[in-house]
Amino acid sequence: MVSAVTALDPRLGAARAAAAAVRDPELPMLTLADLGVLREVRVGEDGVTAVLTPTYTGCPALAEMRADVAAALREAGFGEGQVHVETQLSPAWSTDDITAEGRRRLVEAGIAPPGAAPKRAAGPVPLTLGPTRSAVVHCPHCGSADTEETSRFGATACKALRRCRACREPFEQVKEI
């Protein structure tokens, strides 16, 4: 079914599809839509605007995401001066923004998806030093909950390294934020 907005401007559907298909540079099994960082796509008289929210403020992959979205929109038929990619920091991204499809793809890739993000009060996030909460993390290989963290940081700051005590397989886990 074609939405009323897409029927008014068919470029919007093409722009949304192009931006939504861009792969995350650090988790290439996920699209930016799966990851939940693609917040909005708008088409106006001055061209197309895609809005991204990084997984965290200092995310080193943001520049690559912006460039990949801009390239995808140009390939979808928007000219150089018509493509705009904006960064939106509020509301902040959360691992709760990962779609069900994205979580399924993480498991298929052998990566444990995050659990529910901790609920925080509005305002500045307090700095907590010391041990973090220990959540039950299921092994993406065998499903066992008997896993252990071997390193708080994996290939990227948003992942931890874990090992399953049941099947002994190592795996990465996307941390809850």
Helix content: 10-25%
Number of domains: 2
Given the structure, what is the number of helices? 5
CATH class of the largest domain: Alpha Beta
- Note the gap between the termini: 35 Å
Q: Can you write the helix and strand succession as a string?
A: HHHEEHEHEEEE
Structural class: alpha/beta
Give the spatial strand order of the biggest sheet. Answer: 4-7-6-5
Strand content: 15-25%
Question: What is this structure's SSE topology?
Answer:
Layout: H1 4-8, H2 10-20, H3 32-35, E1 38-44, E2 47-52, H4 62-75, E3 83-87, H5 100-108, E4 111-112, E5 147-151, E6 159-164, E7 170-174
Parallel strand pairs: 2-3, 4-7
Antiparallel strand pairs: 1-2, 5-6, 6-7
Helix pairs in contact: 2-4
Structural commentary:
24% of the residues lie in helices and 20% in strands. The chain has helices at residues 4-8, 10-20, 32-35, 62-75, 100-108; strands at residues 38-44, 47-52, 83-87, 111-112, 147-151, 159-164, 170-174. It has a four-stranded mixed β-sheet. The two termini are 35 Å apart. The protein has two domains: 4-87, 2-Layer Sandwich (GMP Synthetase, Chain A, domain 3); 110-114 and 135-177, no CATH class. Helix 2 packs antiparallel against helix 4 (62-75).
